[in-house]
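DM between two lab members

TW: hey, do you still have the Class I SAM-dependent methyltransferase entry open?
JB: yeah, one sec
JB: this one, 183 aa:
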Amino acid sequence: MLSPPPPSDWILRWQHLLAAHCTVLDLACGAGRHLRHFAQRGHRVTGVDRNAEALAHLAHLGEVLPADLENGPWPLAQRQFAAVIVTNYLWRPRWPQLRDCLAPGGVLLYETFAHGHAAYGHPRRAEFLLQPGELLSLCAGWHIVAYEHGVLTSPGSARVVQRIAAVRPASDAADTLRPLQAE
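TW: and the structure you got?
JB:
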């Protein structure tokens, strides 16, 4: 089996936001480049992908769940993770479940193709390309650490991406401030 490509620069740039040895979900993990990366750093990893054959090669790293995220049931009901990693994948109908599986105080690192990418290659269909500001809308009310939407170039290729590093609030309560206690 070929080695997976290296982790995304975006994921590497913001990985310091994750607590040590936390639970990490790699959604649509493919060949497992981020699953491997976080497992090697002592995190407890869970990878979900529809390709059961690829997942079989990753089972030694942690939990792997073969699941069709677009046509099957959500495989992570009632589960939450300290971090959720998503790269090069977009299926809008799963956004409510994606948001719910990130624990309060958890970190979302998301990077995928965006509007404008069709000029450079696949995917070209609008349903697979984020609209401007779409990840910001997904994370409304969360602490946005970083957000980018633009063209990335590397030798011989270019792509348009949108990416976000966001932290879900520790509490969904409207008022998270506690009164000070007199000494």
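TW: got it. DSSP finds five helices and seven strands in the chain. The beta strands are 23-27, 44-49, 63-66, 81-87, 102-113, 143-154, 157-167.
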